[in-house]
Amino acid sequence: MCDAEPLVAHRAVAGDRLARAARHRKAPSYLAPDLQPSDTYVVVIWNEQIIDILTGFDRTLAEIARRALPGAEHMPRLRRFRSSVRGMDSRTTVERAQRLQQLHAEFKPLVLPTVWDVWSARTAAGAGFPALTIGSHPLADSRGADDHEGQTFEEVLAAVRAIIAAVDVPVSVDLEAGYGQEPTDLIAGLTEAGGVGLNLEDTVHSDGGRVRSTQEHARYIAGLRAAADDAGIPVWVNGRTDVFLHAEDASGVLDEAIERLRAMEQAGADSLYPVRIQDDDDLLAAVIDAVSIPVNSTAHPVKHDLERFRRLGVGRITYGPLLQLAMTDAMKDMLRPWTP
Amino acid sequence: MCDAEPLVAHRAVAGDRLARAARHRKAPSYLAPDLQPSDTYVVVIWNEQIIDILTGFDRTLAEIARRALPGAEHMPRLRRFRSSVRGMDSRTTVERAQRLQQLHAEFKPLVLPTVWDVWSARTAAGAGFPALTIGSHPLADSRGADDHEGQTFEEVLAAVRAIIAAVDVPVSVDLEAGYGQEPTDLIAGLTEAGGVGLNLEDTVHSDGGRVRSTQEHARYIAGLRAAADDAGIPVWVNGRTDVFLHAEDASGVLDEAIERLRAMEQAGADSLYPVRIQDDDDLLAAVIDAVSIPVNSTAHPVKHDLERFRRLGVGRITYGPLLQLAMTDAMKDMLRPWTP
Asked: Chain B partners of A331 at a C-beta cutoff of 8 Å?
């Protein structure tokens, strides 16, 4: 019944990345701490974890598999090591989380480009941004999935793990309404994938699009805070409310929005994200005035202006789906002269 | 030892796409030919194939699994249906392959934007292009893998399957040097994933970067042609040579290039792709003059000009990594005003 191949191995020249990973103990240290870029190596992976990195030329794959994992020689076959070193040890994750905290203090606002794959992440990091966000909407569009919890938590984690592993900067992940997970499991999954920040919204798409009550959402945020504390990782929690998004008249729900934002602040959120008021100076100012932690605004990279957000006191800027959307426009412009 | 979960199920509102797939029998017809967009459905997938789509509200997942697959109730768990309908039936693939043939006759040159994920594919198809190519280099960059056969054939197929399923136009896939597969297996994997065209190059990166001899490469192309014929699918074979790429002086290897291109034409290639001469009018013209099937040129979507290629008689244009590269530049420009 089972033809899965969880055992993965690859033998090739190590290259800088793997050697660096080994030196920085992103891979278990007993495996090959002295791996050099010029070495030939074999990486053995079991259940998405590196369980062995072997150097040397004199072993057959069968011997390697046997040494790495009792019984492994019975696995259907060995596959080549997929792409990058998977998983980071907890020390690296703590350091990245601390760095993300520092950056929020250092930059006002802190701009965190919202990316969706390894290419867009490397482009943004390469452009000089000290941290990134991954958006659920552009991630889903890149993978052909539906937004609004159309992917499972496991699928999201598998996708973001590869992105996070490809850059050296802290990455925060939009986790929608939590994919039906308990806060402890959400934090465990996120941090195991190397993520050190998250968005958490109050629209539960997987449950008919119902909106959590102020207290229910605040309790979830408090659960995340406690889980992160227990894990010893200062995960940056960006508490999001969609109350403006669902309202016909945004101004009419300002009081409710402020109540929700204050409840999240009280519950231990690090920043607050009232979606859809990025074009309304008065609402942005009112919200910023009502809380004492950074307020996140969505921005369009072409249509909006950083100075305006700074003047209004916005603490943090992400692009949501708008960077990908602006890139869609750019691609269309680029392709126009070639269209049949 | 085995904790894989090949059984996947999801229960939700069907939506247009799944209903359309059921009506067009992209899913086996016994499963739910009358599925409506408003229906609640369960899709059961085994080994990446839809094996059942069940409607109705009165079944537990265990019952569904039992009905769908004897023994399935013993699987570790059911996962939600991932994204889009997987796999296309062979009729659809044949139709797409025929369409790709027609397009090569209809457009001179035929421009096939080179995409790397569902988002870029939908953007290019939405811009009006009647067919697409997937490039190994941009695909690898999007996924954080290495180009030059740094992904396994299975990984490439999994990635391109989702892209192909997300668009309604024929898609050709860059299959590098064939990932060490026999021609029959390469054609079977490609067409099972819905691909109806392929690039095949003579640099074997998985084998130390050696270059196949003219005859060896032509034999592989002939094998692809025979395998496609046997499968009854007119897969478009774009035979590539890297002889100009590896030469210090491109003009100095013109004779060898022509020999290789003619051997591929003789072996049944549908078009020919001499890489790296896109800026050299004389070499392009010489190559085009020497063969009787369309010659493919790489183009940069911003720096090159369609009319020039048309004037030179180029039959087919792809972007290789250059569309993604141009998009990298566009993203950097877009992000510049936001850089700290």
From this structure: 120, 123-124, 127, 323, 327, 330
* Interatomic CA distance for residues B21 and A267, integer angstroms: 46
Q: How far apart are CA A284 and CA A307, in angstroms?
A: 14
- Closest partner residue to A127 (CB to CB) among B1, B84, B332 is B332
Helix, strand, coil shares, percent, chain A, to 5: 45, 15, 35
Write the CB contacts of A31 (distance below 8 Å, at least 6 apart in sequence). A22, A50, A51, A52, A53, A54
The tens digit of pLDDT for each residue in A177-208 reads 999 999 999 999 999 899 999 999 999 988 88
Q: How far apart are CA B298 and CA B239, in angstroms?
A: 14
Specify the number of domains making up chain A: 2
The two structure tokens encoding residue A324: 């990908």
* CB contact residues (below 8 A), chain B span 276-335, against chain A: 299, 301-302, 305-306, 317, 323-324, 326-328, 330-332, 334-335
Residue range(s) defining the domain that contains residue A201: 90-332
Q: A77 and A108: one domain?
A: no
Q: Which of residues 109-138 of A touch B (CB under 8 A)?
A: 111, 113, 116-120, 122-124, 126-130, 138
A167 plus A220 within the same structural domain: yes
Same domain for A230 and A284, yes or no, is yes
Q: Using a CB-CB distance cutoff of 8 angstroms, which residues of chain A are in contact with residue B115?
A: none
One domain, residues A230 and A292: yes
Question: Last residue of some domain: B47, B66, B85?
Answer: B85
User: Do B78 and B226 sit in the same domain of this protein?
Assistant: no
A127 plus A263 within the same structural domain: yes
Q: How far is A60 from chain B (nearest CA, A)?
A: 18
**What is the sign, positive or negative, of the torsion defined by CA atoms of A59, A65, A69, A73?**
negative
The structure's pTM equals 0.77
Where a domain ends, among B69, B85, B101? B85
End-to-end alpha carbon distance in chain A: 49
Q: What is the CA radius of gyration of chain B?
A: 22
**Domain with B188 in it: what CATH number?**
3.20.20.60
CB B12 within 8 A of CB B41: yes
Q: CB distance A302–B334 less than 8 Å?
A: yes
Residue A2 lies in a domain: no
Q: Look up tokens 């691609």; give the residue.
A: A331
Same domain? For B34 and B163 the reply is: no
- Confidence band for B303, pLDDT divided at 50, 70 and 90: very high
B119, closest residue in chain A (CA to CA): A142
Q: Does A169 contact chain B (CB < 8 Å)?
A: no
Q: Calculate what percentage of chain B has a pLDDT beyond 70.
A: 73
Which candidate, B121, B229, B105, B107, places its Cα nearest to that of B172? B121
pLDDT at residue B82 tops 90: no
Sign of the torsion angle spanned by Cα atoms B300, B305, B308, B313: positive
Measure A267 CA to nearest chain B CA, in Å: 30
Q: Does B338 touch chain A (CB under 8 A)?
A: yes
- Whether B60 shows a pLDDT value over 50: the answer reads no
Task: Evaluate whether residue B52 is within a structural domain.
Answer: yes
Q: Which two tokens stand for residue B146?
A: 């290495």
Nearest to A82 among B155, B163, B336 (CB): B155
Do residue A319 and residue A217 come from a single domain?
yes
Distance CA A130, CA A98 (A): 13
